[in-house]
Design goal:
This protein has 247 residues and is an alpha/beta fold. The chain is 27% helix and 35% strand. The strands form two sheets. A seven-stranded mixed β-sheet has the order 4-3-2-5-6-12-11, sandwiched between helices. The N terminus is likely disordered.
Length: 247
């Protein structure tokens, strides 16, 4: 068995980046439906929205489906490995390598999105404020910012264990995760076993710290960015959505 360790908070690098889509789609994540719902939500708050920037776009699966709903879409991604996959998937879509805390593009958008709880990788209120300020700085007048948060402290379940088995592209992938509370954040340790006919079983592991911001903390960040904010229950993963519009 071959073992590879990914550094903590590595930004979904290397082999994990290549497994990302297979694992989450195998668990039932429906990017096409989520993109349709997201486009409808944006249209309800910003009628006539024609452009979208997806921050922390990952491997570009949301972008792939949002591309047909808007005249212009772009992405920003911190992980170079994830960005490479997004570029191959969306060859006609600009995907910028950048950090949500300090990225600067030379254009503005009708909508800025940050999905799948990527915002939780901000470590404290200052970083959360910085990210929302960057989102607002790239927003057209009358535009909308949509952020999918991580769990709130009151809704997080310490000790949660998740497990799944996915069969795709000739691989059998077993994923087991364990979440626990650590210094106001969720520490998630994830282990993968990947089996392919005629090859050794490969082991990959990663660790992420995802901050348990309160709802008030998110709302402060939106307000400091000059955005009026509402919280919508549910959302793609059951963690809700924050929707911000320029005051």
């Amino acid at each position: 068995m071959t073992t590879t360790e990914a550094p903590a908070n590595s930004g979904y690098a290397g082999g994990v980046a290549r497994l990302y889509d297979l694992v989450h789609q195998g668990k039932g994540k429906d990017y096409a439906r989520e993109a349709t719902d997201l486009a409808a939500l944006i249209a309800s708050r910003a009628p006539g929205a024609r452009s979208l920037l997806d921050v922390a776009c990952g491997t570009g699966l949301h972008l792939e489906h949002l591309n047909g709903a808007f005249d212009r879409v772009e992405g920003v991604e911190f992980s170079s490995d994830m960005r490479d996959i997004a570029v191959r998937r969306n060859p006609n879509v600009p995907v910028h390598l950048g950090d949500m805390r300090d990225f600067t593009l030379d254009t503005a958008f009708s909508a800025v999105t940050c999905m799948f709880s990527s915002i939780g990788h901000m470590r404290d209120q200052a970083e959360l404020d910085a990210a929302l300020a960057r989102f607002a700085a790239h927003l057209e007048p009358g535009g909308v910012v949509v952020v999918e948060p991580w769990w709130f402290p009151a809704t997080f379940t310490p000790g949660f264990v998740g497990a799944s088995i996915t069969e795709a592209e000739g691989k059998t992938i077993s994923r087991v995760s364990h979440s626990r509370l650590e210094s106001g954040a969720t520490r998630i340790d994830v282990h993968y076993l990947i089996a392919e006919p005629g090859q050794d079983i490969t082991h990959l592991s990663e660790t992420h710290l995802i901050t348990l911001f309160t709802r008030d903390a998110y709302e402060r960040a939106f307000a400091r960015a000059g955005l009026a904010v509402e919280f919508q229950e549910g959302g793609p993963s059951g963690r809700g959505l924050f929707i911000g519009t320029r005051e």
